[in-house]
Design goal:
Chains A, B: Keywords: Hydrolase. The structure is a homodimer. By secondary structure, chain A is an alpha+beta fold. Chain A is built from 2 helices and 8 strands. Chain A has one domain: Nucleoside Triphosphate Pyrophosphohydrolase, CATH 3.90.79.10. In chain A, strands 2, 3, 4, 5, 6, 7 and 8 form a 7-stranded mixed sheet that branches. In chain A, strand 3 and strand 4 form a beta hairpin.
């Protein structure tokens, strides 16, 4: 157990990776294996280890949950609304990346993910946490 | 005291506010009243309360430490290198804003700040924490 004089938030990273393929825009999502939002789809992501830089955590979580590696991520924005996670205050730093490819790269749900899948952005169901808001913010700025 | 199953970082906000006046670019800095980096200059900022949104924390800290209010802040980037704060892991969300004015607004160091002052960006001494890096990153993107 870890004890502090003042309360602290949990810190996570989330990765929003897009692929444009045959003129359709896809985003890489995972189906959550655990609560909260169990079975709902979400961006791959998870908790930052205390001895790793935040960017390193983003690449690690993306790899652990989807097997997807080899493409660049850049920091997008940090989401910290007080009530965005029912487990308690959790602040998430969102990373993003894009690629173009005739074929969607093979991905596989692992670790905290039941499945990983490229999903057409046009046809998304509601996502876990505040990921619909994050997606909406990303799509306003996406250049691909 | 607050106890958690896994270690957590401290979460801060920092505010980098620029004013262009008579063709000179100034940034609003405070002289730190407390350690670490006591007496060094830094961006106004401080710890996020657990019941406040991160943007609200940025406006609050800027006001508390400098008295400066009434201008807009937008989120710039989050800094989370493992060793950026000698007190332990601290992740900081940086907000920024700009204005043009013939006269520099009156500011006053309060709370954790011995002084607050508009300083010419061209003539800065080394800043506390990783604020030199943050300043360098900001100046690459600043449009004023």
């Amino acid at each position: 157990m870890y004890t502090y004089q003042y309360p602290r938030p949990a810190l996570t990273v989330d990765c929003a990776f897009f692929c444009k393929s045959n003129n359709v825009l896809y985003v890489l999502l995972i189906q959550r294996a655990n609560s909260p939002f169990q079975n709902m789809w979400a961006f791959p992501g998870g908790f930052v280890d205390m001895d790793e830089d935040i960017e390193v955590a983003a690449y690690r979580e993306l790899k652990e949950e989807t097997g997807f590696v080899g493409f660049g991520l850049e920091q997008f924005r940090t989401y910290g609304a007080v009530d965005r996670d029912p487990r308690g205050r959790t602040v998430s730093i969102v990373y993003t990346g894009t690629m173009m490819s005739d074929e969607l790269p093979v991905v596989k749900g692992e670790d905290d993910a039941k499945q990983a899948k490229w999903q057409a952005v046009e046809k998304l169901s509601p996502l876990a946490f505040d990921h619909d808001l994050i997606m909406s913010d990303l799509l306003k700025l996406l250049q691909i």
